[in-house]
Amino acid sequence: MVWCLRIHLARAPLLALVALIVLGTLAASFPGFPEATAAASSHETPEPWQAVLQSLETEARILDPTWAKPVSAQPGGSIEVELSVYVEVTAAYAVNVETGARIELTVESLEKVSDSIAIQDGAVVGPALAKLSIPQDAVPGLYNLFIVLATGDLVWMPRSLIIYDAPPDELVILHLTDTQLGAIDKGILNDLKLARYVALVNTLKYEIDLDLVVVTGDISDIGINVSSYRNWAFAMNQLLVPTMTAPGNHDWAQVPSLESFLLDFYGKYNVPARYWAAKWGNFLFIGLDSQSEGYVEPEGLDFLENVLSQHSGEDVVAMIMFHHPIFSNPGRYKGDPESFRGALYGSWESKFELVERFFDIINRYSIVKVVFAGHVHRDADAIYFRQDNTPVYFITTTTAMHGHPQGYFWGAKVVRVTVDGQVEVISLDREYRLEKGSIDTTGFKVYASYGTEGKSYSWTYDIEEFGVKLERLTLVYPLSKAVPAEVYTTNLIADGLSPVDVKIVDQGLYYLGIATFNIESPKGKTIMYAEPDETPPQIEVQSVVPSKPFRGSIVTIQVKVSDIGWGIEKVQAEVLGLGEEVPVFSGLDPSIYIIRTQAVPGMEGIKVIAVDLAGNASEVVIELEVPAPQTTTTTPPAETTTGTTEETETTETTTTTTTSETAETLTTKEETGETTTAGEAAGKETATTPVSPGETAGGGLDSSLIILGAAVAAAIIIVAAALYRSRAG
């Protein structure tokens, strides 16, 4: 959706508090509500996801640069690094993301700025500022940054340093927006769709020389969903190109204060500043926050003007990023904003004085060439011609993975910007139009699976309906260093793919396998692993609602599927007695699956089948017999009539679990990427669990309690929305 309910605690404290309590209580009780991942480990060999989260969540950490706003420098140059604590720095180094090459950085100085972290002008300011110099022989590339403290702690920030030799003549940029993680669209949890963009970006890096990803907000559907930001940070730090982000209104949703926005939620996992600027050669990027109300506030425009004035005498190309687009309609515009006021997006138009100031700024500073935005979940590019007839390209891109208007799609947009200010949208799967220029990624069905203890990483893909003709895929595999690197290169499965180049790159705290494949089939999978997976998945029935179905009722079944090994490849369901397949949807947690079907006569139950990436399978049978209606004929004494009444019978629900354990030997042929499988099913294990009346399997809530809680929460949300809209005009 292109709007969100914004409950500001300062405006409606009691209403917001009650809503959060009711929603929190319901969600915490209902199976499948997302829980925060376990705290990052501090042992010597962290798993890859732990290592990434350590960089963001420890008390001692790097505040600037971040993976979402990297710093750039040339060999022999220097950078400034802002730290969250003032502790002596004993050493610093950087590791090349693509090659693993390590360079030593010289600590030139360490300045104490303050006694503790502070927030100034919408940004987090750390108490320490270190100045580091880059060696003259540093090889250009994207680097992970590491700092060793006198306490013995190692703090780091992945993908936060760009070293370039000559300033780039052009940048090929992928614009990504409105991921809204934590929400579900088309039956799939949005978090699971991140993998397609990791695969797409890394593939396009080598296919079209993609240089950078810019993100314009609504990263999380709800701004206080830490789990979503964790998933986001881990996925984005698998990219082989730099990333820059700005927040959206959903990133502010339910966030109680600026402090928590910057220190606990969006800022902690992205950029701890509402407004920022970063240079890469002669390209200047400026990130702004259009916040919940949908426009950049005066202090944001002050920041913009100040940055542009500092660089106005330089030969630079400036690109601005914020969430809410100024233009609602695609088109070409010129002159005073009053002449195209009807084409403005509503939130901006309501603050027309800010629109006038924005266009005054970009008319005075001709270095501005591009404005990136999102929010409307559709393409709506516009070109504005200044008074001197030079263009500014307003690039507004469709949602990456959430709801969109009819006729649009999930997607991302590729834009080439040259150092002399030329701008071109590269539409890979269609003829470019202002209203449709993004790559349609709906058919790029790529999913990833993180294996147990980080000792395997898997990809499945189905690109048969993808509109871009690809000959190769480049995929990455974050892997634990607890296993020697050569083990992973030996154990590579490639089904439907032919390896062209495979390498294991030491990232400092974990490995990153990087593999480029020729595509032999539009569907397939690849797994890089340390150990074979011989354990079948586990299926836990968490709820069946209603627990005593009747004819015509909608039965909702929630199951949790887990796998000790490589991960789950697919979950299927079928109606026993009728032989029909039932769609399986994502839950709010990646391990949760939802099955919905109508109870009809002849139904004997639902069978849920889970298959892992090694081919091991398990199944659960949930008995749900729905008897046919019985016909009773009655003959009253005074009349000869026949009346028919329906009697509905119910039965208790029973679940039966069957696990098929397969003892398999997996042999990878390195020359061809083929996998041979030997072994037969070794046995079956059965368990039966009766469900008592008024309960759900797995101890979940009964449907009446869920409906009651949902009704209360819905009522509160409706009232809150009405209050918000009345205040918003």
TrEMBL record:
InterPro entries: Calcineurin-like_PHP (IPR004843), Metallo-depent_PP-like (IPR029052), STPP_CPPED1 (IPR051918). The keyword Magnesium does not apply. Residues 625-696 are annotated as: Disordered. It holds the Pfam family Metallophos. GO terms for molecular function: hydrolase activity. Residues 631-666, 674-689 have a biased composition (Low complexity). Keywords: Membrane, Transmembrane, Transmembrane helix. It comes from the Archaea. Residues 172-378 form the Calcineurin-like phosphoesterase domain. The chain crosses the membrane at residues 705-724. This is Calcineurin-like phosphoesterase domain-containing protein.
